[in-house]
Structure formats: C-alpha cells, structure tokens
Design goal:
- This protein has about 100 residues and is α+β, with helices and mostly antiparallel strands.
- It has two domains: about 35 residues, no CATH class; about 45 residues, Rubrerythrin, domain 2, CATH 2.20.28.
- It is built from two helices and seven strands; from the N terminus they run ββββαβββα.
- The chain has a three-stranded antiparallel beta sheet with strand order 6-5-7.
- The longest helix has 10 residues.
- The chain is rod-shaped, with a radius of gyration of 33 Å.
- The protein binds zinc ion (2 copies).
- The site of one zinc ion has 8 residues, from helix 1.
C-alpha cells in the first residue's frame, strides 16, 4: 500500500507518487493544487488589445460635386483640385465643427 501524505493546500490525503513540490519548494502539494498554482488549469484568456481603425469620413466637393472617402482631413478636391470646396458628407455634426475650425 502506498504512503498517503497530506497536501499542504487542500489537506487531501494523496499518494506520494502524486505529490509535487510547490512553487516555493516549502512543502508538498497534490497534483491538482500544483496545477492551480502554476495556472495549468483554465488559463485566463488573453484579452486582445483594442485596435483603433481610422474613421473614414465622406467628403463632397461643392465645386464639382465629386464624392470620396478619406480617413484624413482633406482640403483639396482630388477631382478638380479646388481648394476649400470640400465639406464632410453624411455626418451631421462633423461639418459644423469644421466650419468653426475654419473661422479660427
Ligand atoms: Zn491539494
Ligand atoms: Zn471638386
């Protein structure tokens, strides 16, 4: 018959062959406690870092009515080359903010 030793953590009586030295090597723990201590059981899922996607803003040229999308603030119409004829299309508040910016 195998010798039973008390696990330091859960106080279960486990056979010597199932015992493991704990992380600090100060005593003996059973296989289950050992796995818990070393995060072998259900490791926490690693959270994916939030990935920021640049917002694609729609623009329309007041001069030639050309429409396009850009993630960056545009000043020059890529179609007719007209300056300051662009305004954000689709968005409601975006155009207002831009007009205020231009006045400053
Ligand atoms: Zn244990
Ligand atoms: Zn244009």
């Amino acid at each position: 018959m195998e010798t039973l030793i008390t696990c330091k953590r859960c106080r279960d009586r486990v056979p010597v062959s199932e015992l493991k030295s704990d992380s600090k090597a100060t005593g003996w723990v059973c296989h289950t406690c050992y796995a818990k201590e070393h995060n072998l059981i259900s490791p926490a899922p690693t959270a994916k870092p939030a990935f920021k996607v640049p917002i694609n803003q729609s623009y329309v040229c007041d001069f030639c009515k050309h429409k396009f999308n850009s993630a960056f603030k545009q000043k020059l119409c890529p179609n007719c080359g007209e300056r300051d004829a662009l305004r954000p299309a689709g968005g409601s508040g975006a155009g207002l903010i831009w007009e205020v910016e231009d006045l400053i």
